Amino acid sequence: MAWVKGIAGTVCALIGLLWIGQGINILPGSFMSGQIQFAVLGLVLLVVGGLLLWSLRRSRGATGATRG
């Protein structure tokens, strides 16, 4: 089940970065370009993805699993 959190966290973070880039017009060519609300939504999605990845790291540390 941990791999689901990892994939979901990574996808959320990447989409969040994309939306931020489009919202602040770094990545033009979309209806989202230059629209600040998409930058805000992207930031929220980036935080959600980060929290998912952080919780995954915390749960691995709590179970005593080692990195290999």
Provide structural commentary.
With 68 residues, the protein is mainly α. The chain has one domain. The protein contains 2 helices and no strands. It is elongated.
Number of helices, where a helix is a run of at least 4 consecutive DSSP H or I residues: 2
* Topology, number of strands: 0
Sheet/helix structural class:
mainly alpha
Beta-strand residue fraction: under 5%
Which percent range fits the helix content? over 70%
Task: Describe the protein's topology.
Layout: H1 2-23, H2 36-63
Summarize this entry quickly.
By secondary structure, the protein is mostly helical.
Attribute tags:
68 residues; elongated; 2 helices; single chain; mainly alpha
